[in-house]
Amino acid sequence: MTTETLKTSKKLQRPTLTLSSEPSASLQSLDLAGDGQGQGKRSRSNSLNLLDMMDVMDRRRRFSAQLDTTGLQSPTTRPEKVIVTVRAVFLKIGEIETVKECFSAEAFIQAKWREPSLDRLVDTPVQIDDIKWDKYWNPKLSVVNALGDPKESVWYTVIFNAQREALVCERRRIKGTFLENLELNEFPFDTQDISMTFMSERSSDEVDLEVDGCEASSINVQSFVDEQEWRLYKHVLTSQRTVERVYQESTDRHSMLSFTCRAKRRVGFFVWNIFFVMFFICSMTFTTFGLDHMLIQNRLQLTFILLLTTITFKFTVNQSLPKISYLTYLDYYILASMVTIGLICVWHGLIGSIISASIEATTALWIDRWILIVFVSIFVGGHIALVLFIIFGVLRARRRDSQKETEYSEKSKMLAEMSRSFLMNLGN
Prior knowledge:
Elements: E1 4-5, H1 23-28, H2 37-41, H3 50-69, E2 82-97, E3 102-114, E4 141-143, E5 146-161, E6 166-179, E7 191-203, E8 207-211, E9 218-219, E10 230-244, E11 253-265, H4 268-284, H5 296-318, H6 329-358, H7 361-427
Parallel strand pairs: 2-8, 2-9
Antiparallel strand pairs: 1-5, 2-3, 3-6, 4-7, 5-6, 7-11, 10-11
Helix pairs in contact: 4-5, 4-6, 5-6, 6-7
């Protein structure tokens, strides 16, 4: 059951801690309960007169002075380890660039941590603008895989759990471009992880980043920009680890938390524009067996043209991939096609210059036909094996992703039900 709620209950008559960027809105929202029966019965006007504004400003100055003299501020360091719970909502994911290995996104991040020095505010009317947040402890979160300086807007509020304990809630909206090391072994049948990683500048002895267990992280699938090339899943995965910042002299380790969504590449473009074209080029190589086996120059001429076409096509395909040191599924297929054409070139040279000169023409023709059958059998059998491998691989990946989708959906429903039950019990 979730243990957190905003201080908005009318039954408890507690003031709501809200943010306001307009001074007039902040002034109008300051309603001090228990300020006398005369004020309780006073009717509000649409605009504050000069005396009311002076009275409000005087109260806010007295409260600010109280914050400075009563020791309400929390120190910027803590003797104990602070647990910070983080939640991420992917509001919009833009284009995923395979070559540059980056993606653009806009996200909402919420971080919460315990602040004992604000516990007394549970029964005290206070405006958020009156709290000097730079005087309080902060986990100093940052996005480690951001490319450049992303646009950020940060604001704070205070919430209280069922035990009337104060928690600082830091909310931020971030928009920018983020780096992601893409795993392209299965390209173009790959599924990529799109992550945003947060790290605290404080050491792991001071702060521990954890996933928010009260509110589930989510993603807005409908706002996905690159829908034509990728299929975005609805679940969000999380991972936690500690790392050492190598550019600092300190050997302290820092807590990191990653929020990951998954996107599967749509293979239609690559199947029809690369695989099918390569299949067609390689198939044309077998037509060279239709020429007489003694016309070695004609056979080799046609085969070399097809081989050079395949090499040119390979360089064109490389422009769609980053410079990686390993082979992808597409690389294996193109290289296998090039090897097949190369072996046929070698055979044409042997049958015309060596074999035909040492055996009879009828026997050489019979051997040439059997070699053609062997090449065609290997070619067709290899493609059947490739199709089966892709089908079973896709089905296995789809089954795994469907299971994750189901688990995430069940978890989200459970958290929503717990929140609903908690609010109903609070209202009763």
